[in-house]
Amino acid sequence: xxxxxxxxxxxxxxxxSVGPGNPVPPSAERIEAIPSAAAVPVDREDCxxxxxxxxxRSCRELETYxxxxxxxxxxxxxxxxxxxxxxIGYLESWSGILEERGARRDxxxxxxxxxxxxxxxxxxxxxxxxxxTKERRCHRVPHRxxxxxxxxxxxxxxxxxxxxxxxxxxxxGAAAGKTxxxxxxxxxxxxxxxxxxxxxxxxxxxxxxWVFPVDQVAGxxxxxxxxxxxxxxxxxxxxxxxxQALFDWQGVMVGILDETRFLDGLxxxxxST
Amino acid sequence: xxxxxxxxGGQTYAIEATSVVEVxxxxxxxxxxxxxxxVLGVVDYRGRLIPVVDLAKRLTDDFSxxxxxxxxxxxxxxxxxxAESSPQLPKARLGIVAENMVSTLRSDDVxxxxxxxxxxxxxxxxxxxxxxxxxxxxxxxxxxxPVELASGLFAAQAELPSP
Lengths: 273, 163
Hints:
CATH superfamily of the largest domain in chain A: CheA-289, Domain 4
Order of helices and strands of chain B: EEEEEHEHEEEEH
Largest sheet of chain A: 6 strands, mixed
Largest sheet of chain B: 10 strands, mixed
Oligomer: heterodimer
Number of helices of chain A: 8
CATH architecture of the largest domain in chain A: Beta Barrel
Distance between the termini of chain B: 33 Å
Number of strands of chain A: 11
Mean pLDDT of chain A: 76
Number of strands of chain B: 10
């Protein structure tokens, strides 16, 4: 997630007044960036288009906030944007949308986190998800590794069980020489994109928490129930029994893991080894 | 804990995100005569009429300003007295119009700085929290309408055949 905000010497600094090692609060920087800030209406102040993620990414604040959507300047601009009268006819058009009974079906959506393990795209209901975090060292447990259990990992000061979902589902590792399946536009093979997912469900003795590494996280998406497809009974992969449904997303087939079966599977595997 | 925040009379109030059904633009409402002034009327919400309360008018003297940031929040709760008698009935739904409904607050580190006051005239006020440097007053949405009014409005809602 490191971007070019550190400032290449060839790029002229967007904020001449802001020297390195001299962080300025965003509000001060904003005023300095635009000579007559007071005269410029707030809705025209679009630093994210000039120096932010949709601009040349030279804004120093990106080091702190990573993306403009996390930056207080943009939050303030968004607040200012909504602080005006609704366009004529806008609210009325919404009355029409709400009166449609058919719209009810659109509400029946599941929110899932889409991630990739080797060549497989999978999804997990966000209700089971606690956090997505950077990959970190996993401490092996003597005589207990080699199976699904990878070891212990430190998540916010607590040691959690780290497992290999790839091994649980029987997904083959991506071979070095193998070309990735065509048509997969979302896939980016970069070790920097590896993440740890933390999942949880209430257990008998407190929450039942697991951590597992994934190769890429695509994000949270909402899937309409109507677009879900049943898992074909003929699928030979052993991992299919952990999936509750499939859906087509940006040209790839994504399997939604059944969180109960999946976590039961983890429990069985780890307790039995 | 994730909270949806909004304001009334310049003060920040919040409800827990788990009770939110949807946040919508403040669509025009159908006025129902002879209701208290803070009940704006009813809105056809996906085939079901739901009562709409103006939070600013309920809490202060003025109505909410008509801005894009003033939105209609649809909340869902089990209405006391109804869940016991017939648990299969759909939950009561209420629309709340409030200003500056544009952000959520999320924090694991929540500090209650003031407990619920249990005031007779404002039973809808919950505890006061401090999180991420902001002081927010929790709303008890079930209590926004007085019991008699709520039973009348929500009883009508319950009689509808569930689609």
